[in-house]
Amino acid sequence: MTQMRAAVLQMKVSPDKKRNFQTVKGYLDELMPHCVDLVILPEMFNCPYQTDLFPIYAEEEGGPGWQTLAGLAAEYKLYLVAGSMPEKDDQGRIYNTCFIFDREGKQIGKHRKVHLFNVDIEGGQKFRESDTLTPGKDITVFHTEFGKVGVCICFDIRFPELSRQMVEQGAEIIIIPGAFNMTTGPAHWEILFRVRAVDNQVFMIGAAPARDPEASYTSWGHTIIVGPWGNILRHMDEKEGYIIQEIDMSQVEKVRRELPLHR
User: Fold this and answer.
1) Does 113 qualify as catalytic in the annotation?
2) Which of 77, 160, 181, 203 is at 20 to 30 A from 257, Cα to Cα?
């Protein structure tokens, strides 16, 4: 089976954690007639993107938010790449974590953001995730009946070795929940997704939160799907909504055969 239908949500994040999960469920109800196989949520979909809030919103793996996500994946019988949310381990460390569930609601992957977003751009964005977050260290690739899929989070895309390691483990799609801002978004968002697609000859999918000008951190939005030739297949603006794309996994093999970079 090579054809997979993927949906990517670009949702506005509320300070109300429960409301964010209700928003996800509302989108899944709306997607039901489209028979999607995989749904992707944005980075920090259940928590405002503020370092001081990450410890407050954080839950342990298996907590209420995790259970809700597992239940939704099972209810709608789809793979759910659950963006990211603050995760707390048994020693109190906080991570920016993406949980991944199969069609039965079983967790089949988990990625903790490896490269933390610590930047100070003159005249632009200043942000330090390391004030409250701990970096992860694992390469994340999960299996589906369509092929292998890699996952990393936002700032991770800037480090090409991480994407290459996922491809070396068999990934033909790389999914990146990410919240680029109004400085880095217009400068680098599209470029990075296209160049990683070309370098690795994979589908690249970026899932961003919708733009909220009233938030302390303003997302660029522009959720994107890029093909293994570097061509843009779907591209949103800054507003709320979703995109659906039929992904033909055989295109990866075709591009790699025609332009045999990996050999």
Assistant:
1) yes
2) 160
